[in-house]
Write a structure and sequence with these properties.
The protein is of the alpha+beta class and about 350 residues long. It has two domains: about 5-175, Immunoglobulin-like; about 200-340, no CATH class. Helix content is about 15%, strand content about 30%. The strands form four sheets. It has a seven-stranded antiparallel beta sheet with strand order 1-2-3-4-5-9-8. The longest helix has 19 residues, at about 200-215. The two termini are about 45 Å apart.
Length: about 350
């Protein structure tokens, strides 16, 4: 599919999107870019080569929903070897002065915001490649293939197509017509419960592990399973069984049971994850002081791709509290995966 065929198709979709916006959360890979928009229509676009070829240079965009939200653009050198002048298709970047050095989270970034960022994007979207020439083992290159379609998709999700502040195709519509930011889901506070004594916890864990072994046991597991039990309330317990582990991920079985024999199993009452993800694999844990059940799954060992999510127990069910996902391994910092679910509340 050609670049312009893809953009034309998105334009048709985005025209309808003013009346029926794209569903969120949204995660989409477009050529050498990833677009991720959360349930509050905050969007990110990240450079991520379709070829999975490593490059230390990365370009990220962020914009919240709502009429007044500015776009933020930043350039990252993952290897932190210092920035040299950027070249767009072999020529000096005309808007390079818009990029300011910013220290953030123990790293240096080149950052542009608001109108400066939009001027840079207007220049970049007509190019093919952004390069930082230097003597390196790997070329510091960002492919711009798919950037225009990524910008258009962000505009469509946020209802900005044809507005003055649109990223891809600014128009005459006033920014006041951009839909407001949706309200975040409100999660109730965790009610808490009295922790179980060690003897009860071990008894429940061992009993449930023995009762459910046929459901998760395999001949080549390569190690002994381990189980933990936690009090959910005065009647029920949560049991987490680590069944087996590979190089950097493990498999788990999670049960909600009575605290009294025969430890009858109940539905976990777990909110579904966005986009059909299953969760509860990789590494699973429960924090009894906060009522948070969480997991982290690495797409590969260096954790430049993967997913993580968490649920908060409200006394009856586990409500989704957070979810982040990066499906394309792009060589970024470990665990820096776009957030796709946000909530309000303590």
């Amino acid at each position: 599919m050609s670049r312009w065929t893809l953009i034309s198709g998105l334009l048709l979709v985005s025209g309808a999107a003013q009346a029926a916006p794209e569903q969120v959360p949204l995660y989409r890979e477009i050529k050498d870019w990833v677009v991720a928009c959360d349930n509050l229509r905050g969007c990110q676009a990240l450079s991520a080569r379709d070829s999975f070829e490593y490059t230390p240079l990365a370009l990220h965009l962020q914009r919240e929903a709502g009429a007044q939200a500015p776009v933020r653009l930043y350039v990252r050198d993952v290897e932190q070897r210092g920035f040299s002048p950027l070249l767009l298709d072999g020529k000096p970047l005309a808007n390079a002065k818009a990029l300011q050095r910013v220290e953030q989270s123990d790293e240096t970034l080149l950052v542009a915001e608001g109108v400066d960022a939009q001027a840079l994007l207007a220049e970049l979207r007509n190019g093919e490649q952004l390069r930082m020439p230097a003597e390196r083992e790997y070329d510091a290159v960002v492919s711009l293939s798919g950037l225009s379609a990524a910008l258009l998709l962000m505009d469509a999700v946020q209802g900005r197509v044809d507005t003055r502040g649109a990223l891809y195709r600014p128009g005459t519509r006033p920014d006041s017509e951009v839909p407001p930011t949706p309200s975040a889901p409100l999660l109730p506070a965790y009610p808490g419960t009295t922790p179980m004594q060690e003897a009860e916890s071990q008894a429940i864990a061992q009993a449930v592990m023995a009762q459910t072994r046929d459901a998760w046991s395999e001949e080549d597991m390569g190690g002994e399973p381990e189980a933990e039990a936690f009090a959910l309330n005065d009647r029920e317990a949560l049991v987490i069984i680590r069944t087996w582990c590979a190089a950097y991920n493990c498999d788990f079985a999670v049960y909600r049971v009575d605290r009294q024999p025969p430890y009858a199993e109940h539905d976990l009452q777990l909110d579904a994850l966005p986009l059909g993800h299953e969760g509860l694999s990789g590494w699973v844990s429960y924090a009894p002081d906060t009522g948070e059940l969480s997991y982290l799954y690495k797409g590969r060992g260096i954790a430049d791709c993967g997913e993580t999510g968490a649920w908060r127990f409200d006394g009856e069910r586990f409500q989704l509290a957070s979810f982040s996902y990066m499906g394309r391994c792009a060589g970024g910092n470990p665990g820096e995966w776009p957030e796709l679910w946000r909530v309000a509340g303590p």
